[in-house]
Write a structure and sequence with these properties.
Layout: H1 3-27, H2 33-50, H3 52-55, H4 64-71, H5 76-88, H6 103-117, H7 121-129, H8 135-169, H9 176-202, H10 207-234, H11 249-255, H12 261-278, H13 288-295, H14 299-309, H15 314-331, H16 340-346, H17 352-363, H18 367-378
Helix pairs in contact: 1-2, 1-10, 2-5, 4-6, 5-8, 6-8, 8-9, 9-10, 11-14, 15-17
Length: about 375
């Protein structure tokens, strides 16, 4: 099978998988339609971007449609950024300002209009043949690379902020969904770095290297899409419970440093008594807002108290009480037949992985190891 045939076969398979998954995301019944639609759009744009080997079979030379197809790549990363934004925040809504992400795409196409879009076929051929000397293509080349670096940096900062907000305001669930989204973004970052490498060879004297890398990109894209489908079906919730209007505690502290130490001490005593007496941590979906309302303590003060003054995130603060309660159960001889799974649900956890992680962080042992050590000590 020659190079062109291999490219064509891999391209067809990639296009089929991309469009099939996009169709699934657009038609599946879910409460998270915005995220699904944005990612479906990302898949469609990606499919258009990789369709060049097939388009070349039906084209006798450079065309306006072909050039427009190649510039669609400027929409990929901005759309993925919006997807991550929609996944992290439950109150995500489409805003007019998001259209600003179209600027690189529009600028590039406007730049290409005088010497490509508006000229005859012969001039288009000359433009492509001399592409290494064309300022427009050089600018497009470097702008695309800059866009990749800027957007992925913004995405990682967004994920970092979302994780901190989650830890400061929520106690339910675990961080596996965040880890997956972070991993997926990391894989895409590597993928686009390889794309950059391909483009460097494309505008050099070693274009055959670019073609070989292109085959690897198409194959890897198949695996990335399939991996996404598998993970997305197993993590349908992701975060989706973070309000974008929430502020990080570090920002609150900078804004307001007027809280008196006596007030903080009173609130701390009140908080500890409430946690011990009412045991709100048994609720897997407990949030810092729930405790604020129940104690009649302003959310801002409570958040600063736990996440700043106590030096631990709300997520860890609540889990400490859950682990202490779990340890009491494990030490109780009358409950020796209660399984670890039953205990974790009883104390407020909703996944075995998050329970094991929190328990080992607090005690240095897994729940099973802790129970075995207690049994050994009683012998």
């Amino acid at each position: 099978m020659d190079k062109l045939d291999l490219l064509g076969v891999v391209t067809v398979i990639s296009l089929f998988v991309s469009f099939f998954l996009a169709f699934f995301l657009l038609t599946v019944k879910t409460t998270h339609k915005s995220s699904n639609r944005i990612f479906a759009f990302f898949l469609i744009i990606s499919a258009i971007d990789i369709s060049e080997p097939l388009v070349s079979l039906f084209s006798d030379g450079p065309s306006n449609l072909g050039m427009l197809r190649s510039t669609v790549s400027f929409l990929q990363i901005p759309v993925f950024y919006l997807y991550v934004l929609s996944v992290c925040y439950s109150d995500f809504k489409w805003k007019p300002k998001y259209f600003l992400h179209l600027i690189p795409f529009l600028v590039v196409n406007a730049l290409l209009t005088p010497r490509f879009y508006s000229v005859d076929l012969a001039s288009k051929f000359d433009f492509i043949v001399n592409r290494q000397n064309m300022v427009e293509l050089q600018f497009t080349h470097w702008l695309f690379h800059l866009q990749i670096m800027v957007y992925f940096a913004a995405i990682f900062l967004l994920l970092r902020r979302a994780k901190k907000l989650y830890l400061e305001n929520n106690s339910g669930g675990d961080l596996s969904s965040y880890q997956w989204l972070f991993q997926f973004t990391g894989v895409l970052t590597v993928f686009y770095l390889v794309v950059i490498l391909k483009n460097i060879f494309k505008f050099s004297d070693y274009t055959y290297v670019s073609d070989r890398i292109k085959i690897g990109i198409l194959v890897s894209q198949l695996f990335i899409i399939c991996w996404y489908l598998y993970k997305a079906l197993n993590h349908p919730g992701l975060f989706r419970n973070i309000d974008s209007r929430l502020k990080l505690v570090a920002d609150m502290v900078l804004e307001d440093q007027k809280t008196e130490p006596e007030t903080l001490n009173d609130d701390l005593l009140k908080l500890k008594k409430y946690m011990s007496d009412e045991k709100p941590f048994l609720d897997p979906a407990l949030t810092i807002q729930d405790i604020s309302e129940a104690m009649n303590v302003p959310f801002r003060e409570l958040s600063v108290l736990i996440n700043h003054q106590l030096g631990q995130h709300f997520y860890d603060f609540v889990n400490t009480y859950r682990i202490e309660t779990a340890m009491e159960i494990l030490r109780d001889p009358s409950k020796s037949k209660v399984t670890i799974l039953e205990i974790l649900y009883e104390v407020g956890f909703n996944s075995k992985s998050s329970f094991n992680t929190a328990f080992k962080k607090h005690t240095g042992n897994t729940p099973t190891e802790y129970r075995k050590s207690l049994q050994m000590n009683t012998l």
